[in-house]
Write a structure and sequence with these properties.
The complex is a heterodimer of chains A (351) and B (333).
Chain A (H helix, E strand, L loop, with lengths): L29 E16 L5 E17 L3 E5 L6 H8 L7 E6 L2 E2 L5 H7 L3 E4 L13 H11 L6 H14 L16 H13 L5 E5 L7 H18 L2 E6 L2 H7 L2 E6 L2 E7 H6 L4 H9 L5 H6 L39 E5 L2 E4 L4
Parallel strand pairs in A: 3-8, 3-9, 6-7, 7-8
Antiparallel strand pairs in A: 1-2, 1-4, 4-5, 9-10, 10-12, 11-12
Helix pairs in contact in A: 3-4, 3-5, 4-5, 5-6
Chain B lengths: L2 E14 L2 E14 L3 E5 L6 H8 L8 E10 L2 E2 L5 H7 L4 E4 L13 H13 L3 H14 L5 H4 L9 H13 L5 E5 L7 H18 L2 E6 L2 H7 L2 E6 L2 E7 H6 L4 H9 L49 E2 L6 E2 L4 H4 L2 H5 L1
Parallel strand pairs in B: 3-8, 3-9, 6-7, 7-8
Antiparallel strand pairs in B: 1-2, 1-4, 4-5, 9-10, 10-12, 11-12
Classes of the chains: A alpha/beta (351), B alpha/beta (333).
Chain lengths: 351, 333
């Protein structure tokens, strides 16, 4: 089934007429390979002698690869572990298991010094453009700081020139270098965040809900900017988001996470046209389409219940208590992550 | 259908040390009994301030309603005494806020917060109020209401707290509920649950609903009529079908074109609204949207276009060039 099988008359099926560069780069090498990544946060009790009483399994065995030049979307509801996955790759969290290969090197084995050197190639754009810029620093200094830290532009004049270039590239007036963050709107600040990430010429950028805090009209501006930059500098993105229509627009492949696990992974068009996992189907059905006529015709199957606590996840398939297809066995056996069609992976034993 | 709420030329301004912010600058609209009205717009367009003004909840100072009238069942809410308006709040008109985390009192049990309204407005005894609270929690789909009544907000998830907020809003069987971004803080599957619940309850109980949102999908799914706001003014108003299929204001058109749609083929490129929203302290005598507008002509800088009927009765737009804008959506797709 397709979730949007009630299309407005006269529209072509989704996915037709996609521009060429929104296809996954065919023969590019893998840039990022995440295998069986685990991030279990300990829960402690007792103030003086803390003892571990449980673990929050924020990320529990996540695997995916991202090719050079590709954009992988990581979607899911809050608490599903998508941000933690991104933070593990950045080594802002110390993963408790698994492997993250970047360009052949395992990030989890690197010492502090070599990791810091590699950070130049891996940058991040945060969700909240208000809290991710230091209010006491001028825009120019914010953008120049990574270049200073990594000594990519040791010369002050060269740094200033690069700041002006980056501001222009991100659609801002180079005069903004002398301003402070509070003088700018949310969309402009997010452009500063993007300019900062680009300053050290990274290969891989993790966009953690990079457009979620922005207004609708500004979102489209930033999405276009991210696309232009990807094409111009052959960037690889991990695009973490909960807005499924934006992910569809921007990504080549999409991974759907639920309670610390990837439940479905496929090429973008394949996932949206032919979602197989019941959770993906529910997620897509829950997104309202901005057209009253289409909405009247859509069947609104609404998933019941809420996301359980990752401290005490359900047995077997973690989605089974909310699943409309669940059978008895789902509560016992953990479903295998199977390739049901070429490139389309699903963790469900019923379908 | 009888008119429940009539807002006329409402003006709410904020008097700050650096100047006057005309957050709501002359909006007029009606709400009929049992109808769902959506107010859409970007942050800072005045949609929340406009709604808060109805219940006189705008903090004064710095904010003040400087003009207009808000007639609810014939009474002008702006002319009521403090005592009288307090009687309206929560009883005739209830409110559901965006942040279910901050709009519940963390040190009172859910039961206490629900029964407070019941005892205050309906003069119920403790036992009657408890019984009604249990009934209400059941109505909004909270399991084991007796046990949940004794719990505190931190025991509830975001979606469950929003259900509690809706139960509180329904307490006194209001005629009108104002929901300010009721699902913005929630996940998409929970958002769908909450919106379906609100739709179901408002239809069943005949409650009118004003939904304030920036999500065009939600509006399409749930609203009967839509008011689009920009820079403190309503710039287009009509049925959901008129707004989505025949927009006559360039801003509405631009907004619709800027969102990626899951039911359409992937676009090569999004078509964003260019530029930034205006500074509400520096509005001039022309149309506030003209710096970002693709249809702007010389006359747009001279006078502010009035909100006038375009096409069918009830479909209003404030644009000098609305004839040119009409049909642009069809030509584009």
């Amino acid at each position: 089934m397709t979730v949007l099988d009630t299309q407005a008359p006269g529209t072509t099926p989704a996915g037709a007429g996609v521009r060429s560069h929104n296809r996954r780069p065919a023969n590019a090498p893998d840039l990022v390979t995440v295998s069986n990544l685990k991030m279990h946060f300990p829960v402690t009790e007792g103030a003086l002698v803390p003892r571990v009483v449980a673990h929050v399994k924020a990320v529990d065995g996540v695997s995916f690869t991202i090719r050079k030049g590709e954009t992988l979307g990581l979607v899911g509801e809050s608490g599903c572990g998508k941000t933690t996955t991104g933070r593990c790759i950045l080594r802002l969290e110390h993963a408790t298991g698994g492997e993250i290969l970047f360009d052949g090197k395992n990030l989890l084995d690197l010492d502090r010094k070599s990791m810091n050197a590699l950070r130049q190639k891996i940058q991040v754009i945060f969700q909240d453009p208000y809290s991710s810029l230091n209010p006491r620093m001028k825009i120019g200094d914010i953008i120049a700081e990574p270049m200073y830290v990594h000594q990519t532009e040791p010369d002050k004049a060269a740094r200033d020139a690069r700041v002006a270039e980056l501001l222009g590239l991100c659609g801002l007036d180079p005069k903004f270098a002398d301003r402070y963050p509070h003088e700018m709107s949310g969309g402009q600040r997010q452009r500063v965040g993007i300019a900062r990430a680009l300053s050290v010429r990274p290969e891989f950028i993790i966009c953690d809900e990079a457009i979620s805090a922005l207004d609708v009209s500004i979102q489209a501006q930033i999405i276009n900017l991210l696309e232009d930059l990807r094409d111009e500098f052959n960037l690889t993105y991990l695009f973490i988001a909960h807005d499924l229509s934006v992910v569809r627009h921007l990504c080549h492949r999409v991974a759907v996470m639920y309670l610390g696990k990837i439940v479905e992974l496929a090429d973008c068009d394949e996932l949206y046209n032919n979602p197989m996992h019941p959770y993906t189907q529910a997620l897509l059905a829950a997104v309202p389409v901005p057209d009253p006529e289409v909405e009247r015709q859509r069947a609104h199957q609404i998933v019941k219940g809420e996301v359980p606590s990752p401290m005490n996840p359900p047995s077997g398939c973690v989605f089974h208590p909310r699943c409309r297809l669940a059978v008895e066995n789902c509560a016992r056996a953990v479903p295998e992550f199977r390739e049901l069609r070429p490139g389309h992976w699903v963790a469900c034993s019923v379908i | 259908m009888a008119k429940l709420l009539e807002i006329e030329n409402l003006q709410t301004h904020f008097f700050t040390s650096v100047g006057v912010v005309r957050a709501v600058d002359g909006i007029s609209y009606d709400v009929n009994e049992g109808e769902t009205i959506a107010i859409v717009g970007e942050s800072g367009c005045g949609k929340s301030v406009g709604a808060l003004s109805i219940l006189r909840l705008v903090a004064n100072p710095p904010g003040r309603v400087v003009g207009g009238s808000i007639r609810f069942q014939g009474r002008d809410l702006l002319k009521l005494s403090e005592e009288e308006i307090r009687d309206v709040r929560g009883k005739d008109i209830a409110m559901v806020f965006q942040e279910p985390m901050t709009s519940l009192n963390p040190v009172l049990t859910i039961g206490r917060q629900l029964t407070e309204t019941l005892q205050q407005h309906l003069g119920m005894s403790r036992e009657q109020a408890d019984a009604r609270a249990i009934e209400l929690l059941g109505l909004v789909g909270i399991a084991e209401p007796e046990r949940r009544l004794k719990q505190y907000p931190h025991h509830f998830s975001g979606g469950m707290r929003q259900r509690v907020m809706i139960a509180m809003a329904l307490c006194c069987e209001p005629k009108l509920i104002i929901a300010d971004e009721p699902t913005t803080a929630l996940d998409v599957t929970i958002q769908a649950q909450i919106l379906e619940l609100m739709k179901d309850l408002t239809r069943r109980l005949g409650v009118a609903l004003i939904v304030i949102t920036h999500n065009l999908g939600i509006v399409a799914r749930y609203a009967d009529r839509v008011n689009v706001m920009y820079a403190g003014k309503i710039i287009e108003s009509g049925t959901a079908d008129e707004i989505y299929h025949d927009p006559q204001h360039p801003y509405t058109l631009a907004l619709l074109k800027s969102v990626p749609r899951m039911d359409r083929p992937r676009q090569a490129r999004l078509d964003p609204v260019q530029g930034q929203p205006p500074d509400l302290m520096r509005l001039d005598n022309g149309c506030a949207f003209r710096p970002r507008c693709n249809f702007a002509v010389a006359g747009c800088a001279q006078r502010i276009p009035p909100l006038e009927q375009v096409g069918a009765p009830g479909h209003l737009a404030a644009c000098w060039e609305s004839r040119t804008v009409a049909g642009a959506l069809e030509r584009a797709s």
